[in-house]
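Margin note: ligand = acetoacetyl-coenzyme A.
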Amino acid sequence: MDFELTDEQRLIKSTAREFTDSEIVERSRENARNHHFDLEMVSKIASQGYLGAIVPQQYGGAGLDYLSYGLIVEEIGRGDSSVRTVISVQTSLVCSAILKWGTEEQKQHYLPRLCAGEWLGCFGLTEPDTGSDAANQRTRAVKTDAGWLINGSKMWISMGNYARLALIFAQTEPALGYKGLACFLVDTDQAGFKPQPIEHKMGLHASDTASIALEDVEVAQDGILGEVGDGFKVAMSALDSGRYSVAAGCVGICQGCVEESVNYAKQRQQFGRPIASFQLIQAMIADMVLKTEASRMLVWRAGWLKDRGRPNTLETSVAKLHATEAAVECANAAIQVHGGAGYVDDHPVERYFRDVRVTTLYEGTSQIQKLIIGRAMTGINALVPTP
Ligand code: CAA
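Resulting structure:
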């Protein structure tokens, strides 16, 4: 593997860094304080080509490689995880699924609107009683003369209150288990689609999260991604992209923790000298750097594999597991370096700490990533009883 970024990739990274510093950072604290989902920012990131960066230009995307996409997501993640969530969900969970599984007509209809930020999309997999066990969908889809009727509920759906398009996973034939699942392209502009904001989250206050009731939601005959029965694979392949994006965002948080801690430690004086001169502070910074660099390399490796069309589910899980856990630890350590100042939102580390906690939960918990890795290593699926 070549560790040298191309000139174009370096430019993409530095542009994303400048954009983050000039446009995102200054609004992030106020948006978090006001629990404000910033639609103006959605337009700005769309104009930058950051929604659907990996979508080919013919469908309105930027036509970038996965590594470049990861570089953008890292920089945005350093600025604000709520903005990063918009990019991750829209690009990885929604656009990548349509790109991989959609018909030509579906691609032409949805992708340009999503890449332009004209429409937001959401990914309706998780349910109140179906989290890690994603195959066990309770939401039902019944065939009608006109198409499909869907009833059920979804939970923890990012952008569910704003999405114009919802990918809704539902069971069409319970006896078939995961082979009965389908992924429906749901137009949210209908009475039976009922989202509700989820309030009082620990972090990601500027990110929209919904629970959704689905009451006789109508989908046309052709409103399915892939075939009936492909739903589980649609979900898992989208999560291969989503987990990569979450991991890249967490590299950004790690990097932000390093930079904020170094700056603060050089300014903050105690015992007549900057705290950066104390070995115990330097040890914390060194640990953060180690975690940041290792996470970044794992994300780059997963991106490198994706760009070559090679299998990467295992490597993506390794990157997601490592980067999210590392970011939680870095945010905790960064607050320690800041002392009391890190406990209020004057410094970004307070927000990093609250925002990062969900990353080891969503898009597959750390425990699920370990089971995916453990299964790949041993050949034994720990989720089914051994005979
Ligand atoms: N790509 C394509 N196909 C895949 C795949 C992948 N990455 N992984 C598995 N499959 C296929 C398998 O090949 C298999 O197909 P065949 O029957 O043809 O062989 C089929 O899917 C079933 O695979 P498994 O036996 O591995 O399925 P499982 O039930 O054992 O999966 C699991 C277990 C990996 C734990 C899975 O359920 C899982 O990832 N759970 C976590 C769910 C998750 O991440 N949820 C987060 C939702 S998104 C979110 O958080 C909301 C938001 O808005 C941010």
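Residues 7-115 form a domain with the Butyryl-Coa Dehydrogenase, subunit A; domain 1 fold (CATH 1.10.540.10).
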